User: Fold these one by one.
Assistant:
Number 1:
Amino acid sequence: MFALNGHTFGLKNLTVSFEREMKSKDMSAQSSGTQEAEQGDKAATLNVSGMIAFHDIHKLGILQTMSSAKDSKGNRMVYTIIEEMANAFKIKNVRFSGRFSATQQENMMAWKVSFQLKESNSVAEQKEARQKEQTKAEPAENPRLQQSLQKNKRQTGQTKAKPVQDSRFQQSLKQNKEATR
């Protein structure tokens, strides 16, 4: 079964393939080292193809309309997907990406459709967002910082400022000033 936001399209001979790029950068420069810098897991892509019968032309129209739909900000619409492979890889939300094609198949009395769906708000994305939130510790949440601040308050509160003594030169200037009055 394949559905986007509850719409089924009567896709026959459905094939779905999964791809995910694990981005990294070579750190060896011109040496023969094998070190790489991780650059995160990118959004998964589902390549979908199947056949829609000629008598289901309205379903082909709905699928094409959904593929080109945009929200009020001009971004591609995000859809909730129901499909076995998507479920296996915990993909819940997708948007159309890449190509959408429909080719008439005379001998089968159907259209062969193929398109790509890219994962939106992926599990990796959610984990990264949670980690960023956890590293933004507020001063009230940081016990070591709080202890240090309280210790500084106690130390500055216990030691009162001592009067600064004038140097001999400053004392003699004051005496001369008073004598001339």
Number 2:
Amino acid sequence: MPLRTNTKTKKLTPSVLTSDGLAESPADFVSPSAQGRARSQAAHTDQPNGEVIIEAQDVFKAFDIGTQMVLVLKGVTFSVTRGDFMVLFGASGCGKSTLLHILLGLEPPTKGKIMFLGEDMYAGRNEDDRAQFRKYHIGMVYQQSNWVKSLTALENVAFPLMLLGKEKTECLEKAYETLKIMKMESWAHYHPMELSGGQQQRVAVARAIITEPEVLVADEPTGNLDYEAGQNLMYLLNDLNQMGKTIIMVTHDLEYIRYSKTALNMRDGKIDGIYRDQDKSALEAKLTYKKADFSGLNKVSTGEQQ
């Protein structure tokens, strides 16, 4: 459906950015250099073949903090194709959470575009329209899930379908089948608070995918889990991806890069590298994350000068 927004952002005026990312006004990202544009174009054209679901085009984000303007995102360009499993990683404060909010339509960029299925996520669209769009096209899983505590796991999973006006029996039947995918059907009639953290996250994934969204977005889904529960969840996410589900996952745990088809490294509000699996050696190289050795990965673009 066509989406519209009345969201307005501050008009940008020229000035000079400081070395630490502060500015009185962000001229450097209002008019990026030709060199910067070329890097952004290179990052885009290096994407693999396939239908593009989400595309970030030269995205900047600045926040007013006191009398200063802090530049959090600095010209981010990349795209996610159907069937990808993208892991977005980087140190705390690198801008990945801000980028995720922008991708989800929760926070408008200061400059740049987010294209979803060929449509500009923000142009002429308000928050209610974007929320409606998410309901149909994006499934979301967070580090800490919110539950209707009076409902069972089965009913919680069925709830998004009910909100779409589906018949209750149909919703419950599909919820049960979705729980089976996540190997949680035996706990269907338990209440979420009776489940372990790992079990709750598997139910959360089932709830996120029951509407068959174009993309599943997971924000630190293993953040509150122990090692074993985290690995179990990742195995199931990998299975979903093998079934064709497009996944974007944000994490600070570099071990999970090995599950990705595309790994996007962020640093200081920029894309520091985009890495793809081409063969088994690339996957094994990802396991050497403690040494920060990415030599076995196929680095296709950096977005920055070396």
Number 3:
Amino acid sequence: MKNKNTNDAVANIMDNLAQYSRWDVQSVLKRFNSSEEGLDEFEAGLRLEVYGPNQISTERPTPWIVQLVKAFVNPFSAILFFLAGISFIIDVLLAAPGEQSWRSVIVIGSIVLISGTLRFIQEFRSGKEAEKLKDLVHTTASVVRAGAGKHEILMTELVPGDIIHLAAGDMIPADVRIVSSKDLFVGQSSLTGESEPVEKYDSLKRKADSEKTPGLSELDDICFMGTTVVSGSAVAVVLATGNDTYFGAMAKTLTGKRELTSFDKGVNSVSWVLIRFMLLMVPVVFLVNGITKGDWIEALLFGISIAVGLTPEMLPMIVTTNLAKGAVRMAKRKTVVKRLNAIQNFGAMDVLCTDKTG
């Protein structure tokens, strides 16, 4: 359902852009109650309240209480919690007076507590560092405002109807319709994957089929948010900002529930192996011990103690400590890892290919 809604949103945005592409410049300006002199500051402020800041919605930072809970919620911790409960019943509740022992419960509980706390602290710190990095990045756009002329403003303050100036090296800050251009070439590789820049004009140069949704390459007079000016210059009017842009609609497909990492899958696999092994061994030990000795209560307790002995209680703390150590080492090299489990994926890489935009 989510994919269908996203596809519908992308199709609607492309239909709107195709319509603006076919209109002449004056019709587009009239549609947005704008002019080549730009919006005045008061009108721009009103539109900013209506349309919101020009930024793509990203995943909200996870509340610390949720991070804390997730740090303790994993298959292996569940096994240890179960074993701690069994140890509590056997060694404390069912033990004879004077023979009660909290040792196993305390040891297992401490291991789970230390492992989860280490994971929470490291991921919480990494999340805060990532947020600080976002705050350091400020992108501006050259905008024309009536009464104020041409000046730089934060990209997040752009609104539909704004008149902007584009030059070589600029990132297109929104979906725009070109008003005038001079030898304008735009790199659209972030959207299409094509390395060759595309020439853009101030009017539609090729005839588009009105019966179907046009492709990106067919809109000669439209520039998309997230693309870059390779050469030339242009003046353009902003058509859509933020999540209402083509780039914003596509970005929604990248947010949501994260896939399990190979580390997560490995931990789950080991946990299920242990569970299956215990489900096999405990009944066998219980039956053999009960038949040979005739004391079924003692046989049950011995079978459960076997389950406790089969579980490597220290493994979660050892794994978490190593992952945290890897995250700290990467932080010293100016790399922030928000999820500890991703460290294993980094370690499995031979070559990481990326461009300057990430």
